[in-house]
Design brief:
The protein is built from two helices and five strands; from the N terminus they run ββαββαβ. Strand 1 and strand 2 form a beta hairpin. It has a single domain (about 5-75), classed as Phosphatidylinositol 3-kinase Catalytic Subunit, Chain A, domain 1 (Ubiquitin-like (UB roll)). It has a five-stranded mixed beta sheet with strand order 2-1-5-3-4, covered by helices on one side. The chain is an alpha+beta fold.
Length: about 80
């Protein structure tokens, strides 16, 4: 880490955690793209959540109030579906 950079955790549905180095002015879309590139998945298929709320890709780390060691969740988007019998 250098300057104002720090690490946040991204936890996937299977419980695995990925550490990403971020800066306060970094937009979340960049975080999403970096995570998905490491996991070899399309960023549009994943929802990123903080405290139960979906994270806007336009928000910055600072706007979300994220600090060193904070965790966000990555969940696969679900489309379609039906009724349970």
């Amino acid at each position: 880490m250098s300057g104002n950079n720090f690490d946040i955790q991204v936890q996937s549905e299977d419980g695995s955690i990925t550490l990403l180095s971020v800066s306060p002015d970094m937009v979340m879309k960049r975080v999403f793209l970096t995570y998905c590139r490491e996991k070899l998945i399309d960023w549009k298929t994943v929802r990123f959540v903080l405290d139960g709320k979906r994270i806007s890709p336009a928000k910055t780390i600072d706007e979300l109030g994220l600090k060193d060691g904070d965790k966000i969740d990555a969940m696969f988007s679900q489309t379609g579906g039906g009724f349970a019998n």
